[in-house]
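User: I'm new to structure prediction. If I give you an amino acid sequence, what do you actually give back? Let's try with this one:
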Amino acid sequence: MLFEFSIGNFRSIAERKTLSMEPASISDFPENVIQRDQHVVLSTAVLYGANASGKSNLLRGLGVMKSIILESFNRQSVSEIPYEPFLLSPQTVQEPTLYEVVFLQEGIKYRYGFEADNHLIHAEWLFAAEGKKAEKALFLRIKDEIEVKRHFPEGKDLEEKTRGNALFLSVVDQFNGRIAKSIMRWFIRFNVISGLVHDNYQSITFQMLEDTQSYKLLNDFFRDADLGFDGIRIDKMVVNANEFPVDQQDEKMKQLITEMDGKTVVSLRTEHKVLDENQRLIRKVEFDAKAQESSGTNKLIDLSGPIFYTLKIGGVLVIDELDAKLHPLLTLSIVKLFQNKEINTQGAQLIFAVHDTNILSICNLRRDQIYFVEKNQVGASDLYSLVAYKELGDKKVRKDRSFEKDYLNGRYGAIPYFGDFGKLSEQWLEKQRSTMPN
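Assistant: Good question. You get back a string of structure tokens that encode the predicted 3D arrangement of the chain. For your 438 residues, that looks like this:
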């Protein structure tokens, strides 16, 4: 369960910005919240903004934070930490990047964060709160000075074993610290993926299709999405180099076949009906999904693995460019999976970025689920939610407004400015005329 994520001095994000998944005190669509004991969070959140506004940078920051945490202990003493500061200010290029998350794990609310540049962890902290109690510090760190509190005995005597470019949390995890291992498990269940390059997620889809229970869920989802096929299955083939005609192979092909000999190649096959002129079933044929299905269908198949895996374990899934190559109703179907309490029984959360404004009209989103990203005059990204947006007269946006129409009309900002195309066209034509021979 994610409460909020904060990041500062990362790529186009100069000052600290926070994406909150805690619901505001509004009455919009109460079914879009998840409750665990006294804790309540939003099931989904969407980011809008012009190209190059910083949406992807914000989501990318989540993934970078996770990779730094999970890879920290194995990093060599001379290895660099991923570091991409805001470059349009002489101050920020000298400062570390800030990362912080607030989350619920095994009934305890944690706040964990750190500041780092490419060589050094400048600061690191971990706080915890049980029930309605105030949070208490477990450890505090300023560079190589680490103060372990009495509530975190598993960290005692490990201060000197922590390198300057390693996170103290990861060191404690390697020494089997109970709290540290629990926090690491939360980050493992937290995934950031791309909606543009999605081939890498096929293996998760394969695993889900091999499980009897999840196989039915995925097939039902594909059927409801009306993708044109009636079923999907995994096809496995062991490569036998002797079955390939030698006279049709160049050197690169020979090398590839040799390397693949004896290995199992996995592909997906979709089942289609062949009907006669009276729409009666004659037989069924199989298509190779990758070669014969559309790019949008292949994207939905590829993403279905991470989506249903997240729903199964109650994790957090972040998808950049979710709507790319997808019909708005298919994007809607993905969002609805997380907003449907009968399907999302484990409290999974989805954070996604799109350009498709139809989502603002068809997804029944709360104002606190809608975020906008835009750059200011110095090129730094700003982040704000619709529920916090103030109109003229310091008035909040009403829940009965047409969010899509207002957004396209520039009412909330975070849209591209195209300038005067008419004037640009006239200038271009005038230039062409002046260069033409008489």
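You can read the tokens as a compact description of the fold. Here is one thing that stands out. The chain has twelve helices and 20 strands.
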